Amino acid sequence: MRDRLLTAGMGAVTAFCLAFGGTACLITGMSLEVSLGSLALWCAAWALVGAGLVVWRLTPLLLAGMAVAGAAAWFYGELSAQAEMLLYTVTDFYHMAYGVGPFYFGAQPPAANTPYDLALFLLCAALTVAGVVAACRGKAANWAATLCLLPLGACLVVTDTVPALWALFLLLLGFLLLILPQSVRRGNPVQGGRLAAMLALPLALALGILFLAVPQEGYQRQDLGVQVFSQLRQLARTLAKELRPDLGNVTVPVSPGLEDLEEMDLSLPRLAGNRSGLILTVTAPQSGPVYLRGASYDIYSGTSWRCSGDNQWESLWPAGGEPLGNVTVQSYRAEPLLYFPYYIARAGWTQELSQGKIPNTENLTYYSFPVFQGPEASVQVRNPPGQGSTLLSLPDETRQWAETLLDQIGVERQSDGYTLDTVRKIASYVRNSARYDLNTPAMPKEETDFARWFLTESDTGYCVHYATAATVLLRAAGVPARFVTGFMAPVQAGRETVVRGGNAHAWVEYYNGSGWAVLECTAAIEGLPLPTEAETQSTETSPSQVTDRPSDPSEFSEPSDPFASSEPTDPSEPQNSQAPSGAGQLGGNDPAGKPFPWAPVLSWVLGIGLAVGAVWGQWKLRLLLRARRFAAGGINRQALCRWRYHVYLCRLLRQKPNRGLRALAQKAKYSNHTLSPEELAKFDLILGENVAVFQKKPLILQVFYRLIFAIW
């Protein structure tokens, strides 16, 4: 009894570390929303009950319970929809890194509010059952270890999906407790359990020392890895461009928080897809929506935005003002840049700007900025020196079209300055030019200017469209402006607010005479900060305020500080009935009317096909090479080749080599006698018997051996 309890206890511990550690790696690495405490209790229950059933030889009952749980989840818990949502959320990270669209089963992405916690719970239970059987019976340990490492492998594909250290610690500890005693456990499960118990504490201490000796914070990306990653990303973009003409206006999701920081290609098909993953948290001194600036782009080519790296305009950021307090940002992983609010009272911070952003050279995950109320803007604004820079440049065709459009909407262009009425008219026109729709199709291939296509051809758009069009028109009117990406989130004073991928957003920065100011032109955002002459005499452009939208666009006014003074909205609820929460963002999901996602589906089909083809090809290659070896040389050499293959098969099938064949092989190797064709045929006969034994193995083992070891 004591031996059984020890075996069951160590089996349960090993299975729990493997299953919960592996699932937690996926959850923490992908920032999935699930209660880790509840998952831990669920995994512990399966581990304890499962270990008891396996030790007392009731494994079929455990498997039956797993099957019943799966069936109940399928029929009553909408497991299919939840599994689809989990798959969609995980593969969305791969799109952001490599440009392949997220995978889902149906013609449309799953709804944004679809949960996936049940799918994660069932995955954890399945991994626990596999770990229990392997740890308590000493069988299929390699299979169990491989299955539990798969969630970690899903995180290793993308550099930004770093699992929590404690989750990785549990997974590695369970892996070692399963693999190291396996040779003993296979012959005697009780002795294997005792050995695992003896190894548990030393292994935990050794892993702890290893984790302390090589801390995660000290890791630096290698130049070779960065170059390979960039090449893969460029290849994915090229493939997307090549596929798009044949596949129509398909869409793929993108998030500015993880977008290419040097260039944003507007010609790529994209969708403001659902991004429920956690990015960071923000705490502000006052309530209201807060803009967290990421990167800015100043060179417009017609089909893309690019950052020139010209920092001469960064000195035009306003300085001084009334202090408001500190805005604190805590990211879930070290991002390549710092997300900062408006306006920052930090000495010398503008010198830290590089390529339109503040690089996170120290891999910070927690930082704070003191902010102040922005300066006042005058009604008549003169452009500062250097107005011929990239912040006013446009392609010749774009400028000609934009100036014609400005004449049509009654905007006067001046070479030495502009009025804030110019900015107001442009923002109102852009906002009312199209209907907000997250599923706006990609720009057709024959179009060469994104802003012109949006304002003249497209009936819908989202934040990227509105911000691009407004920036182009402002520049054509002589207003220095640039395209900016980051996050916008409603906060409550002094309370930590979670910022998700769905809060990703794009907006415009323009020079208002005193410094850079935010101009919000996205139609889905209520109460946009559009400047009016009446209020700008005593107030300044503010990056954020959400109020009730007036019926007349000309009534919009600029709020007086970077935070709204009105009552904050609940971050978990939509801000209006027409648009989802965080509308105007680059992330979000509204599957209504979306065409079938041909590009993502074909990308996954092509990838799976290539993988299967590679496995099948190497299998056929091994068969061909083996056949050539069997036919090469004399009969003795052919016999020895068959003998080595017979020994290899016996090792795989856990059989002892045939004694008669051993004698013939020794005769062929050590004597001068040449075997007869009849003696050689005995090798083929025994090899045929090996294959017959193999065919009696479970189907999954047959597939594994045929594809990996090429037995057939």
Ranges where pLDDT stays below 50 over 5 or more residues in a row are 218-222, 244-260, 532-594
Strand tally, please? Answer: 15
Fraction of helical residues: 40-55%
Question: Which secondary-structure class do the elements indicate?
Answer: alpha+beta
Largest sheet: 4 strands, antiparallel
Q: What is the radius of gyration computed over CA atoms, rounded to a whole number of angstroms? A: 32 Å
Total domain count? 3
Describe this structure in words.
- The protein is an alpha+beta fold and 712 residues long.
- It folds into three domains: 2-216, no CATH class; 256-555, no CATH class; 608-709.
- The protein contains 20 helices and 15 strands.
- It has helices spanning 2-30, 36-55, 59-76, 79-98, 117-137, 141-156, 165-179, 182-187, 189-213, 223-247, 396-408, 420-431, 450-456, 463-476, 533-536, 598-631, 635-653, 659-670, 677-695, 699-709, and strands spanning 263-265, 278-283, 288-297, 299-300, 304-306, 323-331, 366-372, 380-381, 418-419, 435-436, 460-461, 481-491, 497-500, 504-511, 516-519.
- It has a four-stranded antiparallel sheet with strand order 7-6-2-13, with no helix packed on it. It has a four-stranded antiparallel sheet with strand order 3-12-14-15, with helices on one face. A three-stranded antiparallel sheet has the order 1-5-4, with no helix packed on it.
- Helix 1 (2-30) packs parallel to helix 6 (141-156), helix 3 (59-76) runs antiparallel to helix 5 (117-137) and helix 7 packs antiparallel against helix 9.
- The longest helix has 34 residues, at 598-631.
- The chain starts with a helix and ends with a helix.
- Residues 218-222, 244-260 and 532-594 have low confidence and may be disordered.
